Amino acid sequence: MDFVNIVSLGIIGFVTGSVYMSGSESKPSRQAKAIFTSGPAKIRGSVEFVQLADSMNVVIQVNLTGFEPNTSHGFHIHDKPVKPGDSCDLAGPHFDPNDSPHGGPHQGPKARHVGDLGNILADANGNVQVKFSDYLIDLIGPNSIIGRTLVIHEFPDDLKTIQSSGKRIACATIN
Ligand SMILES: [Cu+2]
Ligand SMILES: [Zn+2]
Q1: CA dihedral 141, 146, 147, 152 (to 10 degrees)
Q2: Neighbours of ion ligand 2 (CB under 5 A)
Q3: Residue 128, Cα to own-chain centre: how many angstroms?
Q4: What is the pLDDT of residues 72-93, one digit of tens each?
Q5: How much distance in Å is there from the Cα of 115 to the middle of ligand 2?
Q6: Residue spans per domain, the chain
Q7: CATH class name, domain 3-19+32-173
Q8: How many whole angstroms separate alpha carbon 19 and alpha carbon 1?
């Protein structure tokens, strides 16, 4: 057996092992999505959430278009579901099951709402394509964001005051 064959067998073994390991986990990975299809602000696209295990951070993949170029926007999960076309005001306050103050995503659980995901930044073409993760939200249990609503605000969140973000310009419920 030559060197190339040994290497390729090694790769096959590695891939097979990975599949086997993920298939044998006791808790499956979870995923959810918020799809932005309506609203006067012309913001469209999706935000996907993946949690590989219940104890792990949730990975958030943002793929949105329709922003003013080079602008920053408060990005939160609010408490209640809305239907497409509803006013985003129907989404209620920030998702806050622990009765915490408003804050930013890098603060501890007693210094932020569960729904406080900070800001997203639109590029020169008005697009947001970013992947990040959050330690506090979950896709199951008391901090689950399923059935709640992702809201995008007109202004940046200063990570201290709810009012800094201004009005709600787009929203989509997470399912
Ligand atoms: Cu908000
Ligand atoms: Zn908040």
Answers
A1: 130
A2: 94, 102, 113, 116
A3: 13
A4: 999 999 999 999 889 999 999 9
A5: 6
A6: 3-19+32-173
A7: mainly beta
A8: 26
